[in-house]
Amino acid sequence: MSVTQPYYGPDEPPETIMLERTFVVGGYIAGAGYGIQIVLYVICAMYLWSQRVRRGKAMLFLLGYITLLLCFETLFIAVSARTVQDAYVDYRNYPGGPWAWFLATQYLPEDVLFYASLFVLTFLSDLLVLWRCWVIWLPAGRIKASLVLVLPLFMLFGSFALGVLWTVESSKPGLSLYSSLPLVLGTSYYVVSLTINILVTIMITIRLILYRRKILDALPSEHAKHYVSLATIIIESAALYTVFAIIFIATYAANHPVNQIFLSVASTSQEVAGYLIILRVAKGQAWDSNTLNNTTTLPAIEYAVHERRKRSKDPIGLSTRSMFLDTELALSSGPTRGSESLTLPVKPSEGSPASEQRDVV
């Protein structure tokens, strides 16, 4: 005799239940992404603070930028958690279930803050990739760099206007993120923002590929990989966010329940991409206006010293002393990539002091 298991689930359509599931999953993903961002923030802040004296106000500016980014991300996570608590705990008996409550209460302060913080985070991240594109193209000349950024910059102003309208319309009583007008505005906003990222990604990638051969010719592979590797291109161009944003826009425009998951993934990946860019800047590994000049000096000398040591029976003795002395003049004109000073002992020769050191900066 079979026993029928009673149904204890909600009396809701399967589509609504799926939306409620993805809503919870999106909250968990956002929380996990927030933890990753805190770790990256601490690492970036330590590097930026340690470089504030040697590299000036730029490091403090970037420190302020990531602090602002973390503040808005904290606000976004806090209001998201409060919304989930209200929908699934405090008002779980609302007619129609948690999703119906969520759609009917978009005017609440936590929901308004949700949209506003998401909009600000996206806008700040777009500004960062535009700045990186400017820095990477600047060595080609200000005119070329300006021409490259004209279209993305105008699109940024357009996305700002759409983002403000989307935030206002989505938080009006009786409307929601999935109402007809907010849906159109939201889709348009993210399409414009994504187009900015795609254009910037393409322009940064083109720039890196154009100089890939020059760097490979000038540097040994272990040094060149810092500037022309696939990972470098992905990080510098913020391509990580672009991939997930495309998936989110496709699912959001189609009104598929899984868009809730990719909204959290896209938002998290956008902030993580920004932190990775700033981490490379803080460590002195990111592209700047002097990259080509720097990559043809110290790394090549370091590599030559390394190769000569391997071939010599006296790796750091008389055979290399003259080369170290010669390179001091080449390096005395200013700092190069990296912040460490490499101190190399020189083996004493006849008539010289018992011990001597040369610093290669």
From TrEMBL:
UniProt source species: Amanita thiersii Skay4041
Lineage of the organism: Eukaryota, Fungi, Dikarya, Basidiomycota, Agaricomycotina
Keywords assigned by UniProt, alphabetized: Membrane, Transmembrane, Transmembrane helix
Residue ranges with Polar residues bias: 333-342
Protein name in the entry: G-protein coupled receptors family 1 profile domain-containing protein
TM ranges: 28-48, 60-81, 112-135, 147-168, 188-210, 230-254
Region Disordered, annotated ranges: 330-361
